[in-house]
Write a structure and sequence with these properties.
The protein has about 170 residues and is α/β, with parallel strands linked by helices. The chain is about 45% helix and about 10% strand. It has a four-stranded parallel sheet with strand order 2-1-3-4, with helices on one face.
Length: about 170
């Protein structure tokens, strides 16, 4: 399961989560193609906010509405008993699910990703704003992503092998 902030402008316009450059980056981090990423039998995507929050005065997206996760996440997660790993993508998801980590910087929380396993894997948001952070923290791509890809592959690959052949 991927839990991230509210849908952005493009996702809102297309009705498809991560249907933008941040989605391309996230799929790269996970080593998943679009087909596997959007296969609801393999990957669940749940935003922190379930509606597009609008734009702020600086031109960026507003944060997700805080009442959404509080009201709906517990109820909705009950419908996903087979989730083997939950990715907390970005500070809104990390702070909501791991409130004690909120006292840490984003970099420290992500550097301590092992502390949250086996239930959660913490990641920065894959937006363009993360480009400098990635450059400043090469350990993320050199170490953290290797483990993330291994865990995702371990969960997803058996699903692919056991999936029935499509009818012709």
């Amino acid at each position: 399961m991927i839990i991230s902030q509210a849908p952005g402008t493009r996702a809102h316009e297309t009705g498809l989560s991560f249907n933008d450059r941040s989605g391309d980056r996230l799929r790269g981090w996970l080593a998943l193609d679009r087909e596997a990423f959007y296969d609801e039998a393999r990957v669940a995507i749940m935003p922190m906010g379930f509606c597009y929050p609008g734009r702020d005065i600086k031109g960026g997206d507003l944060p997700p509405r805080p009442e959404c996760a509080t009201r709906w996440h517990g109820q909705l997660r009950a419908f996903f008993p087979a989730v083997e790993l939950t990715l907390l993508v970005g500070s809104y998801a990390i702070d909501f699910y791991l409130p004690r980590s909120g006292r840490r910087s984003m970099t420290t929380a992500i550097a301590c990703w092992r502390d949250f396993l086996p239930e959660y894997f913490v990641l920065p948001h894959p937006s363009w704003r993360t480009t400098r952070w990635l450059r400043d923290n090469p350990w993320f791509e050199n170490e953290t992503l290797l483990e993330l890809r291994a865990r995702v592959s371990q969960i997803i690959d058996p699903m692919i092998r056991s999936a029935p052949c499509p009818r012709r």
